[in-house]
Amino acid sequence: MSYELLTILSLVCIGASGLLILTGLFFIKTGRRELHKKAMLSASFLALLFLVFYLTKYFMYPPKHYEGPYRGLYLFIMVSHSILATLNLPLAIVTVFLGLTDRLSKHRKIAPVTALVWVYVAITGWLIFGFLKLGGG
Ligand code: HEM
């Protein structure tokens, strides 16, 4: 699979999963629990697909480096994205588990953090792609 195709597939997956998290939040805020569950499980599936494409790209091709004028901003976004993306996996697993096992008071405590981290990671993933496209080596 080419570098470009893997990049497009991983971007579409992480972007769609971020949108599904926002949709799932809208559903739970409007009392539609079943649709909330479906949206969040679909977001989780797309995030797993993202991971497959991202890791395939990581092991098949050398990483690109940003050499443009906004290096400080790029590094802040890249480092915060990488740390939160790593944190997002266990957060998502625990949040989904608590939701599926009806442990709702604990779910309600951790889920807003998971949703925030997830959406941040999705948005900054696209930003990093933009930086590399415009200023990548
Ligand atoms: C990563 C996945 C998920 C995220 C980020 C998430 C996020 C949230 C958030 C932020 C709330 C609180 C909403 C509020 O304050 O009113 C919530 C509530 C809820 N979630 Fe999830 N959720 C996820 C997965 C699930 C799953 C898989 C289920 C499965 C059944 C589920 C069932 C519920 C229910 C029933 C509530 C209402 C709790 C109550 O009002 O007592 N969630 N979720």
Protein model, in words:
- The chain is mainly alpha-helical and 137 residues long.
- The protein has one domain: Four Helix Bundle (Hemerythrin (Met), subunit A) (Up-down Bundle), CATH 1.20.120.
- The protein contains 4 helices and no strands.
- Helix 1 packs antiparallel against helix 4.
- The protein is elongated and about 45 Å long.
- The two termini are 21 Å apart.
- 23% of the residues are buried.
- It binds protoporphyrin IX containing FE.
- The site of protoporphyrin IX containing FE (HEM) has 22 residues, from helix 1, helix 2, helix 3 and helix 4.
Query: Which of globular, elongated, flat, extended, rod-shaped describes the shape?
Result: elongated
For this structure, the CATH topology is Four Helix Bundle (Hemerythrin (Met), subunit A)
Distance between the termini: 21 Å
CATH architecture: Up-down Bundle
Note the total helix count. Answer: 4
- H/E topology pattern: HHHH
- The share of residues in extended strands comes to under 5%
Structural class: mainly alpha
Q: What compounds sit in this structure? A: protoporphyrin IX containing FE
Provide the CATH top-level class. Answer: Mainly Alpha
User: How would you state the average pLDDT, rounded?
Assistant: 95
Number of β-strand runs: 0
What's the CATH H-level superfamily name? Cytochrome c oxidase, subunit III, four-helix bundle
Task: Work out the helicity level.
Answer: over 70%
Backbone CA Rg:
16 Å
Low-confidence stretches: none
In the residues, how many domains can be counted? 1
Largest sheet features:
none
